[in-house]
């Protein structure tokens, strides 16, 4: 018998390579655009020039290509960037007119008029805004990114006289929300005149999770489920049935006034003081509890177990070499998952906002008090990057609740790139996400994110089925504005 042996494929000439970690590979199929809306016309040349300089000198990993070599995903970083090896795909579309001059264009979220400004409201997300955040050449799958052999990072700028849209797109293998915020914060600092030598960068070869990638006996992430083949089939069947029962869905922005949130928090704190309790809750606990009480509270007799997950930024956890935090800026994924102990859906009707907020806070405190458990999770994920962990048993329901506020997108200031003599400060007025995913569709339904905060309110985005939204609206807890 003739045996053949294929030699490993060597790294391409002129490229430095870094293996993707288990944290990068888990969300690899999701293509994410972080859309920024700035109420000024910006100078596209200055935007491109400063971003190119920043990546070349401070964040070369952001200029990497994604490749699948010898059966493993990796970042391939040009040893020298230049016209033949660009660090970013940067595209521009110019409109020599005001965005708001054409009433057929979708209303921007910051222009919405809410019926009761002191109370939360919903507004449908206008899909038409997507065209201003992605170019026609922007790949929409990890396969297209790999086959293009171009930088994983795409930045598309759409210019109007009164508004600039900036869409920052990559496979989730390249960035998480905090990583994107790290790059964009450094970019705006450079735009506004900070000396580049004063900006702390990310070394091209940093691998903070390398020590967790070895063999481990840990095969299960805390709060997640390892299902056998039969259980997996039943799990999928349940969600397919749920999709058939509510086949259409849409995204909604949730506008929560800060005054409303702080008043609800004050009521809870006053109640705890009255009970002489030493427990406490934060604004994020109250916001999350309020949202899920609003979203699930109309299902008064539903005993379905509900599993809630929070992504956790582990850069600031003392988990790395020498039990230190990750001190270098890091743009790639550094997210673990915190599982809130499940409750039956009907509990969100029966329990008070105080009880739900405390349930969340207790889970967070227990998670933070168990660093060894988190290290085990990291080892499990890094050693088994392609293993599927299920968020609930068959027949359960789950949701992920992401917090983009920690990335600071709403505080980004592009004033240094404003065209002409405009004096208006060019801060980000709104953060507009666009998701494209090859993930099974049922994994996205029912989840969402806290996008940003402005002076008056906190904004969330949520994806739910049409019948689900109808149930929420019939409950009368929050009104809906139909955004054109």
TrEMBL record:
Alphabetical list of InterPro entries matching this protein: CAT-like_dom_sf, Plant_Fungal_Acyltransferase
Source organism, top-level taxon: Eukaryota
Gene3D superfamilies, per the entry: Chloramphenicol acetyltransferase-like domain (3.30.559.10)
Annotated GO MF terms: acyltransferase activity, transferring groups other than amino-acyl groups
Stored PANTHER family: ACETYLTRANSFERASE MATC1, TRICHOTHECENE 3-O-ACETYLTRANSFERASE
Protein name: Uncharacterized protein
